[in-house]
Design goal:
Helix content is 26%, strand content 26%. The chain is an alpha+beta fold. The longest helix has 14 residues, at 17-30. The chain starts with a strand and ends with a strand. The model has no long low-confidence stretch (mean pLDDT 92).
């Protein structure tokens, strides 16, 4: 049996394991769900299980959970949109890196302010190595690469990109959530 690594990457919002637990607790509270009800909403009302936490964790790790968009909470059931997360663990992945799109001063996070004159950006934040961390990634709805980007820009501005994630997650995250620190590019290699 051969084994190899495949590269995965994308742009979006990343939560740590603790942040994801807090997100899930708030999600359940706002949507008036118990973990048992949430699992049954995914697996079906007749699905039987012993441990709701274990079952939920298995569904999350299998990328089988969908969440109701924050902006759609008050809409009728058939008008709601959903989004999902991707669970990435160092148990099967390596080379896990996350780089924010903005600095702490809300400027583009690029190494050089002026590439031609080699003027360095003093606010640049180096990519974060997540080698030992479990991460939960919520990828953007639109791809940043591929043939379609030559026909149409995926987003007109960084603010429009951030708004997509606010529409998805804002009600489920703390009021003082630092969007810039959690939005960026995530890449890793995983056993395939």
């Amino acid at each position: 049996m051969s084994q190899y690594y495949a590269a995965y990457y994308g742009s979006g919002l990343k939560l740590s394991e603790d942040e994801f637990k807090d997100f899930t607790a708030k999600y359940l509270e706002i949507n008036n769900l118990t973990l048992e009800k949430f699992v049954k909403s995914v697996m079906g009302p007749d699905y039987e299980f012993n441990d709701a936490e274990e079952e939920f964790e298995s569904l999350v790790q299998g990328n089988a959970i969908e969440f109701i968009r924050s902006a759609d909470i008050h809409k009728a059931h058939d008008e709601r949109s959903v989004f999902s997360s991707v669970w990435v663990s160092p148990d099967f992945a390596d080379g896990m890196w996350f780089e924010t799109y903005r600095t702490k001063t809300d400027k583009p996070n690029k190494i050089f302010l002026d590439w031609k004159r080699q003027i360095r950006n003093q606010d640049y934040i180096s990519p974060e190595n997540l080698r030992d961390d479990v991460s939960y990634m919520f990828y953007s709805d639109k791809d940043f690469d591929g043939p379609s980007v030559f026909d149409e820009r995926p987003y007109n501005s960084y603010e429009e990109f951030v708004q997509e994630f606010k529409d998805k997650l804002e009600a489920y995250l703390p009021a003082d959530f630092d969007w810039n620190a959690h939005i960026g590019r995530f890449n890793y290699a995983a056993n395939a």
